[in-house]
Amino acid sequence: MSSLLIKGGRIVDPANGVDGTADVWIRDGSVVAPPADPDARADRTIDARGYVVMPGGVDVHSHVAGSKVNAARIMRPEERRDAHAMRRWRDFRSGTIGSVPSSFATGYLYAGLGYTTAVDAAIPPLGARAAHAEFGDVPMIDKAMLVLMGNNHLVMEAVKSKDRAAVERTVAWLLESTRGFGVKAVNPGGVEQWKQGGARIAGWDDPVDGFDVSPREIVQALAEAVDALGLPHPLHLHGLNLGIAGNWETTLDGMKALEGRRVHMAHVQFHSYGGSPDAPADFGAQVGPLAEFVNTHPGITVDVGQVMFGDTTSTTADGPTGHYLANLTGRKWYNHDVEQEDGCGVSPIEYRDRNFVHAIQWAAGLEWFLRVDDPWRVALSTDHPNGASFRAYPDVIALLMDRNFRNETLARLPEKARERTGLKDLTREYTLSEIAVVTRAGPARILGLTHKGHLGPGADGDVTIYAPDDDRRRMFALPRWVVKGGEVVVDDGELRAASIGRSLFADVGVDPAARATLSARLGEAASFHPANFGLRLEDLCDPLGVGTGRRP
Amino acid sequence: MPTEPLPHTCTFCGCLCDDLVIRAEDGRVVEVLGACALGRSRLIGIETTPGAAPPCRVDGTEANAEKAVLAAARILSRSKAPLIVGLRQTTNEGTRQAVALADRIGAAIEVGDAATAWPRIAAMQRSGSIGATLGEVKARADVIVFWGCDPATTHPRHFERDSLVGRDGRRTIVMDSGETDTSRRADAFLAVDPDRELNLLLTLRALVREVPLDPHRVEAATGHPLSALLELAETLQGARYGTWFQGASAGRGPARLGEARRQAVTALVRDLAAKTRFVALGPGEAGNAHGAEGVLAWQTGFAPGADLGPGFPESWPGDSSAADRLARGLFDAVLVIGGPAPAIPDGKPWIFLGDPEDEAFARATVSLPAGEPGIDDSGTFTRVDGVSLPVRALRPARTPGAGEWLSRVNAAIERASP
């Protein structure tokens, strides 16, 4: 196989404590130690003198595949017409963009930003077969999926039994069947309750009708099972009351409910609002106390779900939230209930800087980045496409690195909104190294992907090389070179090679007897034969199992 | 993974029953356990032994595969305005190859039945859609409406597998132009004049929204007394989890109103969903048009048709439709993937990729015999509710599936291009 030398760049590799000039050697797709022979030559050398060299970007929370993403594409032709397209070129496929790009375009655009890994954060077990097929048409990046389990009938039955081993078996079986990477809970218990038409679940101890469990019990059991199975990534939690005024207290209660267990809080910006549902005018950002809790509890990580102003599409596995949002905007609404677990809601949304609520949401996201002291525990995300497209990442980076740029935007916002956030008092500016943490090193560590997010020997040969530029947006929007698995896929600013990327899954073991029992139980209620539920490795595009069970 | 034989998935109707057990004796299918009469009649008698590959055809004579692939590649690469249509019975894997080919040659590609698919998608693009998987209906529905559809005839196992009509105290209401096998099994039947379907839907919506209505005008508009419709609206609103099943055209009325009817159903269901849980879906079209739509959408962003002629996907209703271009003669070559093939005027070259028994096989300029999914070919089909299921061959393949042929044609075009 081939070798590549990235010579003389400024290496920003915070996972290895490196920020300085050095060479990076890649052989057979992985980073290797520099050869002992000082005259050693590589098959190709990139002269990176004067450039900034980072590991490839890692997105811990995005929506890139599956039925709700595809419904968003079909439902919104209006945003993918005219110039919003990518042309067919050489071996590159054509595509359309909008807020939810078509599959090939998604891969090209991510890679074009220097990202080499993206995790889809919400696939219902029954949607895994379709989502993995779609992954096969998302080129250039490695993909993984988090599997929805917070409203799963079999999981809730196991939680009700208070048998920890039963929960573990169910989680392992669902992960194995779906070839998922991690465990996601969305509005745990609350979606099931909504699907039943029952009283809304608003607190962690509200009972889920028919299952006799509470959201608290569900998340505790899932977080325990995730740790007992030694999954690389902690429970990935989208809590209760997303988007609702006054939800910050529910979010704080949710973090406390985990009682010290590992947890990743998804798109936490959407869960950080003050006020109350009865008094919309009291709406405000309440990031401070939540960030303080995160700062003092090392087992908790977050991704932000930054809102950026513009037109986008809300796509959520949280059916009741999707319904609420569509009614709020009065716009078209796609809803799809999926048997035994969640479903989805999709609706267009435009975030406007003159809108009081939207302005606060924008500011609350930035507050999160600036108030969490340890950048390793806050990952950059827009919850693509919910807060904005992932294509807005360079703009988010610019806001983090440049206080003046932030203040210019803040000045445009409604005065009342400016007063309801603490953003104006935050002077912190991210360093380049901190940007490398929140866009690659941190998310890789949060995901437990030891071969990603750094440039030490053994790491994947995923590297992004930026031309330093005072215009941070331009710098991060247009990397000069992107290397994926040792192959130069963006060369001198142009897409050159369309490798397909791997499908990462958690390699869990399942007891055959448990598999048979759970499969039979599934078959009693399902609209399909249980033998058709589980995916084989052949159903994945270039699968790569990630080891489990190593954690204490 | 289970060691017992995997179940067979039937592709005959939209039920996509995936729990059948095939019994073969003396090289033939002799019984299909679990299947309905339609599925049995299709599957029983099929040879399960290896057999000779059916020949390809080029210009009316038999040809070997290599020659036929080259001939197909030549037609498509020379074409300035190619069309790709069909894809009603193709696996998702095959459709991925078809869209790749369309992208390479700049074709206008359209999947399934254009006459019903475009209005259905257009309505979704205006209003959205509010649905569920069939398992949700099975588990939760207590009020079920069949609107202008008759699954008792078209989807024989629908009641048993999906809607569980007649069980658990479920209330079933049929609204259709006349009595059907479905209505005879329902709790209530409302005869609907096909020309006044839209009026009825809008009236029901007004009642759900509690708009005061004039009884005389209601009766004139719908043919039904206000009191009957009020009672119906009460039943719908009284559901805990209501389900509205509708066919491909959302009713029996004029095709030109298909989009309006579907939008009216979505609006009605959205109003009902403000008060209780309510969803709408179809019992499902035969074959895999839903899967093909999904693949086309993820690869291009559009369904059910996209024009890749400009070098990127475009989709303008009424303009990008391949069926429409076919009717207006705006093409110079066609690739038809699976029957039924449309009429194609003499003098324009076309390729048929599908069942060698199909009448189109003898008619096309180039014909490639594609193994049928579930018989010779394996892959994935997607149900009307988005659930993807494996479809498995029941015998050693006599001829490659559509995906394999398309990949060969694609490779031949690539080799020939500069």
SSE diagram, text form:
The complex is a heterodimer of chains A (552) and B (418).
Chain A: E1 3-13, E2 18-27, E3 30-32, E4 44-47, E5 52-55, E6 57-62, H1 67-75, E7 85-86, E8 95-96, H2 103-112, E9 115-123, H3 128-135, E10 142-148, H4 153-160, H5 164-178, E11 182-186, H6 190-196, H7 215-228, E12 235-238, H8 248-257, E13 263-265, E14 273-276, E15 279-285, H9 287-295, E16 300-303, E17 310-316, H10 319-329, E18 333-337, E19 343-351, H11 356-371, E20 378-379, H12 393-401, H13 403-412, H14 415-419, H15 432-447, E21 463-466, H16 472-477, E22 481-484, E23 487-491, E24 494-495, E25 503-507, H17 512-525, E26 543-547
Parallel strand pairs in A: 1-4, 1-5, 6-9, 9-10, 10-11, 10-25, 11-12, 12-13, 13-16, 16-20, 25-26
Antiparallel strand pairs in A: 1-2, 2-3, 5-21, 7-8, 14-15, 17-19, 18-19, 21-22, 22-23, 23-24
Helix pairs in contact in A: 4-5, 4-7, 5-7, 8-9, 9-11, 12-13
Chain B: E1 21-25, E2 28-33, H1 37-43, E3 56-58, E4 61-63, H2 65-78, E5 82-86, H3 92-105, E6 108-110, H4 114-127, E7 128-132, H5 134-140, E8 143-147, H6 151-154, H7 158-163, E9 171-176, H8 181-184, E10 188-191, H9 197-208, H10 215-222, H11 226-237, E11 241-246, H12 258-273, E12 277-281, H13 289-300, E13 305-307, H14 322-328, E14 333-337, E15 350-354, H15 360-363, E16 366-369, E17 379-382, E18 388-391, H16 402-416
Parallel strand pairs in B: 5-6, 5-14, 8-9, 8-11, 9-10, 11-12, 14-15, 15-16
Antiparallel strand pairs in B: 1-2, 3-4, 3-16, 6-13, 17-18
